[in-house]
Amino acid sequence: SDGSIRLHQMTSEYPLVQWNDSTNGQPVIALQWALTRPAVFFVLDASSNIYIWDLLENDLLPVAKQTIPENVVTMALLGEPEKPDGLLGIALAKESGEIDIQCVKKKWALP
Question: Which domain holds residue 57?
Answer without folding.
Answer: 5-108
